[in-house]
Amino acid sequence: MKYLQIFAGESARQQIAQHGFSQQLFSTMLGASGGPKWFSLYGLDRYMFGEFFADRQTPLDLVGSSAGSYRFAALSQDDPLAAIERLASFYSHVTYSKTTSAKEISLTADEVLDFVL
What we know:
Order of helices and strands: HEHEHHH
Radius of gyration: 16 Å
Structural class: mainly alpha
Strand content: 5-15%
Shape: elongated
Distance between the termini: 31 Å
Number of strands: 2
Number of helices: 5
Number of domains: 1
């Protein structure tokens, strides 16, 4: 984990020292909104979706909005790596008009989910 910094409180640090850094330590995952900023998490998502959570047998509560909810919809698919690839491909071409309305945003959200799922 040369390129990843983990900030943890004392209790979490002890858990990691005792059990290693494993997906079983997590019960909830938060996904920030932020639109295109999601692309900075793309590589991490590929690892988490393809390897880190791949063999998970227990529920993982997912909390996200906007791009976070799209990411978690992809994670919830039978083939999460293929879904995250579809999301990256589709989402990189999403544009909005200069006078974006709530209706336009909702329709675009439906299109994204239809393509990803």
